[in-house]
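Troubleshooting: if your tokenizer reports a length mismatch, compare against these two reference records.
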Amino acid sequence: MGFWMNLWLVVSAALMYWDAGFVLNRPRTIPGGDLFWLYEPYELYVKVDKLYSIETLNSGDGFAAAQSYLNLAEASMQILTVILWARASTSRSGDVLGLITQTMTFWKSCLYWVNDFMRPEEMRYTDPSKDLQQYILIFFIPNVFWIVCPFVIMIILGTRLATSAVSSKRKGSGPITKKLA
């Protein structure tokens, strides 16, 4: 598999584990908490994305925690994808799992943004009008990768799997033709 796709899966999995650690261990991970030293960059991020704030946690909003549990599942599946790709005998299974995980990541990321934008203005997690430059640099640019990279990988893997299926069907060696023989 391409180096950049392996890199994306490993780095994004590590970030998802780290992110889930921050969210699921609040309030210990916010300033003043004993685990804050592991999550100092979140001090700035929380100012832009209120979903991560202690106020949102205290309000009972469970979206961040729900997303974090999904992150743990996705990250684990991404690591398994890389392992499957590393073994020639299971690389096709890696393609299938990779397509599934990147579809999950893509749509979960879309849901995250749409959930925020569909809220009444006073209940939104982000507010670009407060500081547009900070919003673009800290929220928009980093988070757009969670939509673009998975989407590109979905196209690559979907195309490869479809091409492989058509090729197998033409040769009469696919799983369906073997069962019929």
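Reference record two:
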Amino acid sequence: AEDGIRDAQESRGLGDVYKRQPLCPREIRKNSVDVISVRGGNTVVVSEPRQKVDLSRYIEEHAFMFDKAFDENTETSDLYRNVCLLYTSDAADDLLCVDLG
């Protein structure tokens, strides 16, 4: 798995990594539906509730591929060891980390 990140980094000069955040307490209190899941270590799936013309309900899944994806149970220290150290070990002044959300 780590080799896959390094291969992607070397071939493109960057890597796409996703860290799934758990629902916040406010979302849990409101009984919000969790629609995001991480599958296979590199796929993030958004499960969108939909309704057909005949009013039957179904879930449409949208999959997004990343070099590496971590679920909500991943500790920050594990994320750092598995991603940040790989990128920073060879980078001098050319590293940019962006944290959204």
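Descriptive notes for reference record two:
- Strands lie at 17-19, 36-39, 43-51, 57-65, 68-70.
- The helical segments are 2-12, 25-29, 76-90.
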